[in-house]
Amino acid sequence: MGCSWTCYSIASLKPAHQHHLISNSHLHEPVTRFWDVEEVPSTHQESLSAEEAECEAHFISTHSRDSSGRYIVRLPFKSNAPPLGHSKGIAQRSLARLLNRLSHQPELHRLYQDFLNEYESMGHMEKVQPQNTSTDGYYLPHYGVMRNNKIRVVFNGSSKTTSGYTVNDLLHTGPKTQNDIFDVQLYVRRHHYIFTTDVEYELTTVTYGTKPAPYLSDRALQQLLLDEGHLFPLAKEPFEQGSYVDDITGGADDLDSLNAIATLVEEMCLRGCFPLSKWKSNHPDFFKLHSSPSSCSETHEFSESSSKIVGLAWQCAPDLLKFTDQSVQRPAISKHTILSETAQLFDPLGLISPVVVRAKVLMQDLWQEKVGDDQLTPQIIHRWTTFCQKLSQLSLLAIPRWLQLRSDDTEVEIHGFSTHH
Question: Cα torsion for 394, 395, 397, 402, to the nearest 10°?
């Protein structure tokens, strides 16, 4: 991340090493998001809770910038944090289980080793010196998840210590700093021409899997806008309306304006040592498609270029939003797989509401039956099988990304319609 992070031990509040050694992913978050994603965003700024205010005050009083412009932040520990126990033995046992798993999966072993080598070569982690391998501090477990022949290493700040508490129990989550995804998805459909880009994050001692990491990374970008935004006025709109997590989207009605906005977005990000990568656009002459070394290999076939834009599949050249069937080879039917795959239906704009409603009804019926994971009724199995067969037809949908609006449009009317049988 463009931030440099400083980690503090619980006992002494002095800089301490953070040791990466493993956890279990949970279904709760995606299922919760599935139910909450259609909620209408609040139209007013909600006041911060006491803990959120404490976390924000901690960031304001402790963040700094080095000579290169990079932001240095500190982990926001709670003022009334409970005692943290030892974690080294627990992490070592997790590591032993991981190594045993890797010994039976050579390809996963190779990808895992490549990840760790890259992590070290980029300066995101460093070898712990013998004098620092005590039981003090916190050992952060991790494990690997394979998807589409790619590995994603998951760090687990919720691994318990001998006291029963985790490091995440001691840390603030922080107030919500991200834009509502509904608003961002509407924004990316406003302009005729758009670009998208990813912020490259360097995580040295604070990493994903710790509770405040999303807040700290996004808050650092907000601070960059506060510190440098007045020098780059055209870059403010993409930050304020087109940013979500590490994605930034900007748009304009003509190519020259699009290029100018992208140039200023990049220049402002570099002021904070936030390099940008993976540039995409629906205009074939967008300058970053040809000038950015990291983009050339990804966009050399513009007509076939496909990407993700705020969680939606986006075909750049025809400028279409698409839905894809994520589970070509589905596992055995169980309560867990039904919940997991249903939660993957991501549709904040309501483009496939009839499908999502059917999925929610099925999910409700599944909970009402109060059966175990392998005790599904024939009726539920039949409904799920039929639903999956029809779900693949979503890939036939092609939705224009642009709403045919222009910057000088002052009024927009939305008309509903009804069907009769």
Answer: 120
Residue 134 lies in a domain: yes
Residue with tokens 């990316």: 188
Do residues 123 and 152 both lie within one domain?
A: yes
Q: Which of the 8 DSSP states describes residue 373? A: T
pLDDT digits (tens), the chain, 421 positions: 333 333 333 333 333 344 444 333 455 555 565 555 555 555 445 689 999 999 999 999 999 999 999 999 999 999 989 889 999 999 999 999 999 999 999 988 999 999 888 888 877 777 777 766 665 678 889 888 887 778 888 889 999 999 999 999 999 999 999 898 889 999 999 999 999 999 887 555 557 788 999 899 999 999 999 999 999 999 999 999 999 988 999 999 999 999 999 999 999 999 999 999 999 999 999 989 876 544 433 332 333 345 677 778 899 989 999 887 655 566 678 888 888 888 778 788 888 888 888 888 888 888 887 777 667 888 888 998 898 888 888 888 899 999 988 776 656 665 554 444 4
Whether residues 307 and 379 fall in one domain: no
Domain range enclosing 365: 335-400
Would you say residue 43 lies in a domain? Answer: no
Q: Convert 336-350 to b/e letters by CB count within 10 Å (16 or more is b).
A: eebbebbbebbbbbe
Residues 159 and 194 grouped into a single domain: no
If asked whether residues 166 and 22 sit together in one domain, one would say yes
Neighbour count for residue 5 (Cβ, 10 Å): 23
In a domain, 61, yes or no: yes
Distant-in-sequence, close-in-space partners of 274: CB < 8 Å, separation ≥ 6 = 1, 2, 199, 200, 201, 221, 224
Record the tokens describing residue 64, joined without a space: 């700094």
Instruction: Work out how many domains the chain is built from and give that number.
Output: 3
